[in-house]
Amino acid sequence: MTTPNPNPTALLVVAHPRPDSLTAEVARRTAERLRADGRTVDLLDLHAEGFDPRMTPADEPDWADPDKRYSAETLRHMDRVTAADRIVVVFPVWWFGLPAILKGWFDRVWNHGFAYGPRDLSGKSMEWIALAGQTARGYTESGLDKVMETQLRVGISEYCGIKDTGFRILYDSVDGAAALLDEL
After folding, report:
1. Where is the Flavodoxin-like fold domain positioned along the sequence (predicted)?
2. Greater confidence, 145 or 183?
3. Is the pLDDT of residue 55 over 90?
4. Is CATH 3.40.50.360 what the domain over 9-183 is classified as, yes or no?
5. pLDDT for res 20
6. HSE of 30 in the Cβ direction (CA atoms, 13 Å)?
7. Is 168 helix (H, G, I), strand (E, B) or coil?
8. What is the DSSP string of 93-121?
């Protein structure tokens, strides 16, 4: 039997260059919801913190060495992931996927020997909140909603041992921003 975490912590990852963006507002409201649920929120604003998404040899996975020592920046981010029991990612959909800075964060931080391989992130929960400019109809008719959900839920969360994963697309974020915020 597992003991409930007396200090539940959510790592709230935000990937948008403008602090006044709709994505940032959704993240603020998400943080309020998490705090209302009794969680401590660790806000990781990738742009504000100056995260470098470029892969370097120091952070490239070494399949033969699951105990590889990664760069200091990556280790600090790994510590933040480790400290959280829930990970919430809020991002704009660009080219029907993750913004480059967020993709780079997963590439560098969710690394072999930490997030997958002999050790993984089992026991955590995760929530993906994507803001898309198109309507729900545009996504469902093309099947892009299912493609994104599979890529993120299965290709990242489940691959890293996280079974409790939610996925939500907030559609029409360009023309319907006010209505979208009412949904939160």
Report:
1. 10-174
2. 145
3. yes
4. yes
5. 92
6. 27
7. strand
8. -BTTB--HHHHHHHHHHS-BTTTBSSS--
Q: With DSSP H G I counted as helix, E B as strand and the rest as coil, what are the percentages for the chain, rounded to 5?
A: 40, 20, 40
CB–CB of 160/121 below 8 Å?
yes
Q: Return d(Cα 67, Cα 35) in angstroms, integer.
A: 35
Q: Which of 157, 141, 33, 30 is nearest to 91 (CA)?
A: 30
Residue 181 has pLDDT above 80, yes or no: no
- Taking only the tens place, the pLDDT of each residue in 83-137 is 999 999 999 999 889 999 999 999 999 999 999 999 999 999 999 999 998 888 9
Q: Say if residues 101 and 51 touch (Cβ distance below 8 Å).
A: yes
Distance in angstroms (rounded) separating the CA atoms of residues 94 and 85: 28
